[in-house]
Amino acid sequence: LSGLDPAQPYFQGTPTEVRLDKSDADFVDIIHTDSAPTIPNLGFGISPAIGHIDFYPNGGEQMPGCGKNPVSQIVDLDGIWEGTRDFVACNHLRSYKYYSDSIIYPDGFLGYPCASYDLFQAGNCFPCPAGGCPNMGHYADKYKDQFKKDFLKLYLNTGEARDFPLWRYKVTVTLSGKKKVKGYVNVALYGSNGNTKQFQITKGTLKPDNTYTAYIDAEVNVGKVTKVKFLWNNNWINPTLPKLGAATITVEVGQNR
């Protein structure tokens, strides 16, 4: 049984006979997309973990792309009716859109086991465990024999619009150069399956020999990494023409470590 943002009003806090629960089937997976409190946040979805595995994309409360103003959202989508409906219940309805996207991305929507979304964002739950990360949506049942007893909370990020899946990488850059400068460092990944856009690894004071780490959620699974593009900019014209490079760049793939 797959629960697509099961309802919070009238159901949260009720006995298991009343609401969806992991005792209802051999394997119950849940996608939480609108689990903020109903009062005052108008969250429609239940927030506690109630399945064998519970996915909390983007933390489970506010989905990317749902904060747009009503006019742009209504015009952007597949028609006036769908746009109006999505504006009213955008977070709640993201659950079925993630699920339908998951059907065509068997390797996408990896849920990282973690105690909280903040810890996931900070990289504390990276990479996937040795047994792999369950896939949110259609292919979640690949993991049905691994998780039978305790509740398992899984976190991931998604894109703002279709296609929704993102793939998580840890990028570590050690700088080289003569002296520190102010600016930012960007990195793009190139691989056998495609290339990513540029991601900012750090900004502020850039010191040679220092190491900077960032967790990036790429819009493409690059496959085998073949090249890394390193760019830095100090944002203003400096007559001393400072030079900065990358002594090393390390890329760790969340999916297969």
Automatic annotation (TrEMBL):
Its EC number is 3.1.1.26. It is a peripheral membrane protein. Pathway: Glycerolipid metabolism; triacylglycerol degradation; Glycolipid metabolism. One of its GO terms (cellular component) is extracellular space. It comes from the Eukaryota. The keyword Chaperone does not apply. It catalyses: 1,2-dioctanoyl-3-O-beta-D-galactosyl-sn-glycerol + H2O = octanoyl-3-(beta-D-galactosyl)-sn-glycerol + octanoate + H(+); 1,2,3-tripropanoylglycerol + H2O = dipropanoylglycerol + propanoate + H(+); a 1,2-diacyl-3-O-[alpha-D-galactosyl-(1->6)-beta-D-galactosyl]-sn-glycerol + H2O = acyl-3-O-[alpha-D-galactosyl-(1->6)-beta-D-galactosyl]-sn-glycerol + a fatty acid + H(+); 1,2-didodecanoyl-3-O-[alpha-D-galactosyl-(1->6)-beta-D-galactosyl]-sn-glycerol + H2O = dodecanoyl-3-O-[alpha-D-galactosyl-(1->6)-beta-D-galactosyl]-sn-glycerol + dodecanoate + H(+). Residues 167-257 form the PLAT domain. GO terms for molecular function: galactolipase activity; lipoprotein lipase activity. It is found in: Cell projection, Neuron projection; Secreted; Zymogen granule membrane. It is an enzyme of class 3 (hydrolase). SUPFAM superfamilies: alpha/beta-Hydrolases, Lipase/lipooxygenase domain (PLAT/LH2 domain). GO terms for biological process: lipid catabolic process. Keywords: Cell projection, Cytoplasmic vesicle, Disulfide bond, Hydrolase, Lipid degradation, Lipid metabolism, Secreted. InterPro entries: AB_hydrolase_fold, Lipase, PLAT/LH2_dom, PLAT/LH2_dom_sf, TAG_lipase. It holds the Pfam family Lipase. Belongs to the AB hydrolase superfamily. Lipase family. PANTHER family: LIPASE (PTHR11610), PANCREATIC LIPASE-RELATED PROTEIN 2 (PTHR11610:SF165). This is Pancreatic lipase-related protein 2. It comes from Malurus elegans.
